[in-house]
Design the sequence.
């Protein structure tokens, strides 16, 4: 464990908690893409299958349980409890256009052709693009509540911090995983325009407005 | 690449 990965996990945890609190407190999931949340739940489910098979550490197990529970709780809030506030008309990204290439790529580019490894690879590639429906929805609605933009900033930062973690681990532990690194860079790059808007606008108290 | 046995990253 190193400071970059710890900060990354904390940022990830913060993002998930911000989202849960936003929906629970405002009793509304307006502006939130249910499709992205579904993709995140799929990501954690396929990646944390080893939750019960190999124990890494208390921290590792605790975080996996929290991420799984929070992502399913968020889906329940969006599609069940506050279903009436779910903005279906703006959450229209075709996720099949994500699932197909991710599935093909995980079958072609993986470290080992075993079920558990393919599922892990699939989850790594899926996570890289899982935010696209949400970013698409923000661009369609043309704006995002500031709490939603804080959520996106924390979520985008987490994998950016993981990139620093991979640099650290490469030099200090001569460990690297090209699949995770490639997907992590793509995932972080997808947030770039949002990061720019967040830094230049939201931090100055303005609303996040995307050029429609 | 020396693959970490088991996944220690989240």
Sequence:
């Amino acid at each position: 464990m190193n400071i970059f990965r710890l900060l990354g996990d904390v940022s990830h945890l913060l993002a998930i908690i911000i989202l849960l609190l936003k929906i629970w407190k405002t009793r509304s999931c307006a502006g939130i893409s249910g499709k992205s949340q579904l993709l995140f739940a799929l990501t954690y489910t396929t990646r944390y299958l080893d939750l019960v098979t190999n124990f890494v550490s208390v921290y590792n197990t605790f975080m996996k349980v929290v991420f799984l529970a929070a992502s399913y709780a968020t889906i329940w809030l969006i599609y069940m409890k506050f279903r009436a506030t779910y903005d279906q008309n703006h959450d229209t990204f075709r996720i099949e256009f994500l699932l197909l290439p991710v599935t093909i790529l995980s079958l072609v580019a993986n470290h080992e052709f075993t079920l558990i490894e393919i599922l892990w690879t699939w989850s790594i590639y899926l996570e890289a693009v899982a935010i696209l429906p949400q970013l698409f929805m923000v661009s369609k609605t043309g704006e995002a509540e500031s709490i939603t933009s804080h959520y996106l900033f924390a979520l985008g930062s987490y994998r950016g911090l993981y990139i620093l973690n991979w640099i650290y681990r490469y030099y200090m532990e001569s460990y690297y995983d090209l699949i995770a690194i490639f997907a992590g860079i793509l995932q972080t790059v997808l947030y770039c325009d949002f990061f720019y808007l967040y830094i230049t606008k939201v931090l100055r108290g303005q609303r996040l407005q995307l050029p429609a | 690449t020396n693959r970490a046995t088991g996944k220690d990253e989240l």
